[in-house]
Amino acid sequence: GTPKLTVLWKITFGQYRRILWIAPLLAFAPFAYLQSFRRLPRDVALVLLLIPICYAIINSGYYYWDGGNSTGPRHITPSLPFLAFAFVPLWDAATRSVRVTLIMVATLSGAISLICASTTMTAMSVFPRPLFQEIIPRLLDGRFHNALVYATTPDLRTFLAFPAIWITVFIFSAGLPFVLEALGSKRRPAEKSVKG
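Predicted structure:
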């Protein structure tokens, strides 16, 4: 069908199936593309920009644009790696404070995705605001969806008994300060040795 601006808005900013509530990090995409055009070859930057745009336009003209029972706009998911690559020049150009902000927002995005995967990745279409009407209530009620649910009672105990997730979160959280320290605010030029 014909692309619709209203659907483009819903995919990006709408409460129902917007990409930004499941991945808030993508709010920095305009800055990422700005740095991509400054630091990458123009044809590479254009590919990184045009592929996500094409997916969004095609999806906006598709009658089944919302993907039915889906957490987030699933039809544009294949374009996300191209968006991710655009963040590399942004990271490279960023100061320490900007990098800390990016890491914090990326952590929030990862946490939201983890919550979605742990509760339901098929948010029902009857909820106009699935994050607040279905996903977070499931989290607060301890209704988790994981492999142990099918063997035991589907409550908080099944999630607590799933240690791999918590070990991963702990390792990431514990290692974050060391990563930030290693990255520094900018790449420092190598010091020249002075011969006496």
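Summary: Residues 190-196 have pLDDT under 50 and may be disordered.
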